[in-house]
Design brief:
Layout (H helix, E strand, L loop, with lengths): L11 H21 L4 H12 L11 H20 L3 H6 L1 H25 L5 H12 L6 H6 L6 H25 L6 H33 L3 H21 L4 H12 L8 H24 L3 H4 L2 H29 L3 H11 L4 H12 L5 H33 L2 H6 L3 E7 L6 H10 L6 E10 L4 H19 L5 E7 L3 H12 L3 E5 L13 H9 L3 E6 L9 E5 L10 H15 L2 E6 L4 H10 L5 E6 L3 H7 L7 E6 L10 H13 L4 E6 L26 H18 L1
Parallel strand pairs: 1-2, 1-4, 2-3, 4-5, 6-7, 6-9, 7-8, 9-10
Antiparallel strand pairs: 5-10
Amino acid sequence: MILASQALVTQPVPIFFIVLVIILLAPLLLNRLKIPHIIGMIVAGVIIGPYGFNVLSADSSFAIFGQVGLLYLMFLAGLEIDMYHLRLNLRRGLLFGLLTLFVPLALGVVTSLWVLNLGWTTSLLLGAMYASHTLISYPVAARFGITKAPEVLVAVVGTIIAVVGALLVLASAVNTGDDDGPGSMLWLLGRMAVWTVAVLYLFPRMTRWFFKAYSDRVTQYVFVMAMVFLGAWTAQMIGLEAVLGAFVAGLVLNRYVPAASPLMSSIEFVGNALFIPYFLISVGMMINLRVLLDGSTLLVAALMLAVALFTKWLPAYITQKVYHYSAAGRRVMFGLTAAHTAVALAVVTLGFNMGLLDEVVLNATIAVILFTCALAPVVTAAGAPKLKISMLSDDDIIRHTRVNNTLISVANPLTAPGLVDLGVLMRNDRGRHSFYALHVRNENTTQARALASISLDTARRAASAANVELKEIDRFDLNTVTGILNTAAERDITEIIIGMHRRTTVIDSFFGGKIEQLLRSTNRMVIIARCYIPLNTVTRIVVSVPRGAQYETGFSRWVRALARITRQLGCRIIFCCHEDVQPLIRGVIYHENYGIRCEFRTVTSHDEMILLSGRVLDDDLFVVISARSNSVSYTDEVTEMPGLLQRSFSRNNLLVIYPEQFGEGEEVTSFVDPMATDISAAPSPWLTFMRNLTRNLRHRRKK
């Protein structure tokens, strides 16, 4: 297959330089022509490859990096899937998967037998080639932000079914001549079942342990890559394709790599910048244009291409009609499943080495690969914008106009990364969200300025690792509380994140004097955080909600914040609250369409909350929704909450949230002193009377 002549460039340094130039220029040039840059990578591989101008040879470096890029592509496809929505669309994906497996398989076998006059074994091989496909245009869907669309998730489920089915057909075709053909198939299914159970059981536990023990992002990235290739290697060992192992590894590790995390940014950056382009270039280098121009090859390639495209378009069309998807959704499903690369190459290469396929069919298959790889991104890019627009309802457009300004108080560089990670997980991706890191110092010494610089720089680096812009504020003020209050007023802050106070003396309060003063002096939402483990290793979020919390002004804001954290972590959230609050929490979550797994436990008394302490595990995140003393939901139980947290939850990961009060932008004032902001220190009799009156009216109405 490879030309015998020497390539023009053989030294490693210029080879790598040429590849980098292609990776750099292909997107820049083709974006002007509105052509997906994936096509440019493949065409560039044809031009510089051994069948083009022979600038570079398809040596072992391209074989290695190309294989790594393919595995990386499949791993990213599994990693970026929204598992909750995947389960919701599993039934529809099953129908599409069976259609996109058996329709190409059946029509491929028929055309191979009766048109190309091939044997049964060869026809089965080509049928497996038609049935399989690769999500080569998935980056296009990710770029348009439609990876959570039902059509995309259905295509992903269909890919899993089609790839597994094609590999089983391949194994059946290879073992056709053996006496123990059915036995070999059963043995393969048994090995695959054992391998799947082992991966689903071992990989999550190994990942959770490693992420708890090592927080360095470089170390975590290397560990994730090792797990991906371990999954690919073990899949090869049992007779499956490595791409299936990489895809399953992505699904398993999906839970521990949040979409907004720095680790996810690193994984996407390395893959999209190097490995995946290498794979696309290596695909182009395998194409022999001279053989494709031969008349017999062109005829066979035209027939195979027609079968390949029609048998992938028909399942998308049927699924669209059955589930009433739009035409744009059908185009996206077809575009995602039209490309044939990995399994198709494995099938025809195996058939060629076994003498079942000749060079004409082999080169015709490569022509099909080239055309489908070029067509799939174009079709996906044509349907993605319309599908994205159809996903945006009127409520979504309103939510995109929301503005969130989060202030993160960083007192020292040790706690800064954890607080920034919490803020990033709460990021509102449906509107504008700005982040500010604040360090307040009441001294102007060199040591104080150095501590501020180090703390803010640590916070900035933590945010930049997650591709989040963080504005640094070094403030010289009277004290920490005054600095936070003045900054919040100047920047129109909507929520404040601060680390939990550590008690230094026996008589010291649980929150400390600074936080208590802050709570009395601002009406914004305040989040007090204490986490002993990385947030991406949290298994559940348990939320304690006081009775009457739905009457607070900031009720929906903290519900949305917790929903965003839950969606990023992919875990369950359990609300422990009175039955009056449950419908309203559920309404906010479903109205905002967050798509998270939420459960409710009815809690009616303070004693039940004490019993809850034995059910909150070390891997859980315990969230307490508290209340200020002048709020409607403030009760005697809220007063006792700090003591309960100190006694029973001292070793748990903890968030204490004080919801926003009195609406956005209203100042807390007093009739005695219009400039005062500390009226919550002693609630007025009028506020106490109104609070008790409201509570009594609700109680009588229930009776």
